[in-house]
Amino acid sequence: MEVWKNQIKERRKEYIKTVKYYFKETMTKISNEVIFNKKDDISKYFRQVYKKSYELMMHDQEKFRKSVLRDLMITNNIDEKDGFEQNVLDNYNELYELTKSDSQSNKSRSGIILELLVIDLLETFEYPHDNQKKIGKKKFAKDLGKQIDTIVPGIDEFKRNPSNCLLLSQKTTVRERWQEVGEEVSRTGANEAYLITFGEDLTDNIIETAKEQRIHFVVPKNIKESKFNNKNTVYSFENFFKRRIKRTLQLLDNENN
User: Fold this and answer.
1) CA nearest 20: which of 61, 40, 49?
2) How do residues 126-149 score in pLDDT, each as one tens digit?
3) Domain residue extents for the chain
4) In terms of CATH architecture, what is 130-256?
5) Residue 230 has pLDDT above 60, yes or no
6) 57-83: pLDDT as tens digits
7) What is the CA radius of gyration of the chain?
8) How would you label 162-194 residue by residue, b for 16+ Cβ within 10 Å and e otherwise?
9) Does 101 score more than 80 pLDDT?
10) Which CA distances in Å does 68 have to 4, 17, 79, 178?
């Protein structure tokens, strides 16, 4: 089985490129209007870039799966005459490992797409920030923990005065993982953290419970307006990136002048 796992890993490298590649490729394929207007319609930009990046990745993943399954047929001498059901049963462990590998890879890559989108928006608005890739995961995690992905305006200001900073984390789905962010907020002594997500599985109960741990949510505009318009700890992408961050930086600027 170890040989099969390594085979999956190596073949994946052959067919599936880096997330940054799909992100950049998406910029050549989505509407120029979406890109030009991303400062105003951030929610649309997030959704379209995420969707197209994921589609491009899935296109290559389909080719990867077919290639790996051909290898399996040759290696295990799979005969079509044995029938689909029997072949699946005979090769269950190999198929399970392939499915598990795909699931883990997709979750990781989906999160990276969202991370690249957040960084892209921060750079578009020219907001100062530090993130795990810029600082280094180990050094960043030492001060902020593994669940915090980005800090505005930066880690030096956080060390000086945590209340002047915004801690950002992004997750494609919320589930129970927001609690991990809450643990980092408590550990670091930060005022609050902002979890950037698509909000499809966000509920009133999660929002109220997370509020006690100083967790705020940032979601697409349509989710905010249709489901959580009366929740002051839920921000739309537009409100957060255009106003909330700007307000924090202005307060910090006033403090220093």
Assistant:
1) 49
2) 999 988 766 656 665 666 667 788
3) 2-123, 130-256
4) 3-Layer(aba) Sandwich (3.40)
5) yes
6) 999 999 998 888 887 777 766 566 555
7) 21
8) bebbbbbbbbbebeeebeebbebbeebebebbb
9) yes
10) 10, 16, 16, 35
pLDDT in tens, 21-51: 999 999 998 988 888 899 999 999 999 999 9
End-to-end CA distance of the chain: 63
Q: Tokens 């505005």 correspond to what residue?
A: 152
166/155 Cα distance (integer angstroms): 10
Residue for token digits 């029938």?
83
**98: amino acid identity, one letter:** L
The Cβ of residue 40 has, within 10 Å, a number of other Cβ atoms equal to 10
Residue 214: left (phi > 0), alpha (psi -120 to 50), or beta? Answer: left
* Nearest alpha carbon to residue 192 among 165, 219, 171: 165
Compute the CA torsion angle 206, 208, 213, 219 (nearest 10 deg). Answer: 60
Q: State how beta strands 150-152 and 130-131 pair.
A: antiparallel
Residues 6+ apart with CB under 8 A from 220: 43, 46, 47, 198, 199, 236, 237
- Tokens 């408590």 appear where? 186
Task: Please name every residue paired with 130 in a beta bridge, in sequence order, or none if there are none.
Answer: 151
Q: What is the DSSP letter of 148?
A: -
